[in-house]
Design brief:
With 334 residues, the chain is mainly α. It contains 14 helices and 2 strands, in the order ααααααββαααααααα. Helix 1 runs parallel beside helix 12 and helix 3 runs parallel beside helix 5.
Length: 334
């Protein structure tokens, strides 16, 4: 696997996924069915879109917990704008959602870079700002009058099985395109290498000529772009826009991304790790549902994953609390 570029974290995740899949296959009668597996893939697509966007921010040394609320705002703005222009189409929908999301992501980058504020502090603030604005102007009401093209289910693969119809929808296609675009950005461009360099050593990156401002706007703007696209696809999947539908999704995605090997201190992370982490988290939630275990158990698992990730990443802790330079441990000679 090493020759394929699969690291130790990814290998462990693959092993855990295989073991968990085998256990759920034996303990439940519905997990290892084509319809359930396809549903799991469709339902995970939005989180994977969010995840690859969040990966870029984490690699650059930042963190963002406002992207899910930003996606909800994008849903509303896009739906209202499409209503004003007579419905539009998929192309216009993607352009609007991507533009709105990018603007919100760059809004975060402005405060983080311009005023040198720790990213988690800014995104906690914008999380509350975005959510408050959304609830104030929407009144907490949902939108159901969406264009037909957005609510019509688009099926790429449809198979009749003994357990019902198994379908792969457009969500998986859009997710694959977002994954491919992010992989190209990180692995096939000099900009991607600069993002890794900035996350690994900010001062060193500055000294070799990396534009820290440009990298901040790129990283958070890319996450905003992915949040906008993910929000549009969530509206298509749910066939409605609900202001609280994505509330809390940011923690699920963050847990999955750090589980996949992304370091909270920056400079490390892979697309494959993100996908495997999200699949594992989705399998865990799906397995708990099939076994009839309380959904609160899933929240406990997410909390443990995030706590473990922060604990195991001392550099991440330093950045989260604003201590960018940890003092080295010195031993006094006896």
């Amino acid at each position: 696997m090493r020759s394929l570029g699969i690291g130790s974290t990814e290998r462990w995740l693959i092993l855990v996924i295989v073991v968990m899949g085998a256990f759920l296959s034996v303990s439940t009668s519905t997990f290892l069915t084509l319809s359930n597996l396809f549903d799991l893939l469709n339902a995970s697509s939005v989180n994977i879109i969010f995840g690859v966007g969040l990966l870029v921010v984490l690699i650059a040394g930042g963190i963002d917990i406002s992207f899910a609320v930003a996606a909800s705002i994008v849903q509303y703005l896009t739906a209202l704008t499409l209503g004003y222009v007579g419905g539009g189409n998929w192309l216009l929908g993607f352009v609007l959602a991507g533009a709105f999301g990018t603007v919100l992501g760059c809004f975060n980058a402005f405060w983080i870079y311009r005023f040198r504020i720790v990213s988690i502090v800014v995104t906690i603030a914008t999380y509350n700002l975005f959510f408050g604005l959304l609830m104030f102007f929407s009144g907490g009401s949902s939108l159901y009058d969406l264009p037909d093209w957005l609510t019509d289910r688009i099926t790429i693969i449809s198979l009749d099985t003994a357990d019902g119809r198994a379908e792969i929808t457009i969500l998986v296609v859009v997710m694959a395109l977002c994954v491919a675009a992010t992989w190209l950005l990180l692995r096939r461009t000099s900009t991607g290498r600069q993002l890794y360099a900035m996350g690994d050593n900010t001062e060193g990156a500055r000294r070799i000529g990396v534009s820290l401002g440009a990298m901040h706007y790129l990283a958070f703007g890319w996450l905003g772009l992915m949040a906008g696209i993910g929000g549009l696809m969530q509206a298509h999947y749910a066939q409605e826009v609900v202001p609280t539908a994505l509330n809390g999704r940011e923690l699920d995605v963050l847990a999955a991304v750090v589980l996949g090997g992304a370091r909270l201190g920056g400079g490390r992370g892979s697309i494959l790790g993100v996908i495997l982490g999200i699949i594992l988290v989705a399998m865990t939630q799906n397995g708990l549902n099939l076994l009839g275990i309380s959904p609160y158990a899933f929240k406990m698992i997410i909390g443990v994953i995030i706590l473990a990730a922060i604990t195991l990443s001392s550099e991440g802790v330093g950045k989260l609390i604003g201590n960018w330079r940890a003092a080295p441990t010195r031993r006094t000679a006896q």
